[in-house]
Amino acid sequence: MKEEADEATAESDGVIRDANGNALADGDAVILIKDLKVKGSSIVLKKGTKVKSIRLPDGAGDHEVDCKTDQGGFMLKACFLKKA
Questions:
Q1: What does pTM read for this prediction?
Q2: Is 2-83 CATH 2.30.30.40?
């Protein structure tokens, strides 16, 4: 119940939040909390990978965070990230 209310509040105030509910901003460093398979390739982004200097583009659909890693540039969902 409380999680649903938190998600509704987060969506309505327009602030992008990580998995722990912390607000994210351009230039923040984040850490992946789950292994993520990249669609269309054999690349796997490993849990615990630190990503520096994220960007929060406007109107990016359901993927809120734009970032660059050693494997390339990716658009990620904030629910798989935590602020470093």
A1: 0.79
A2: yes
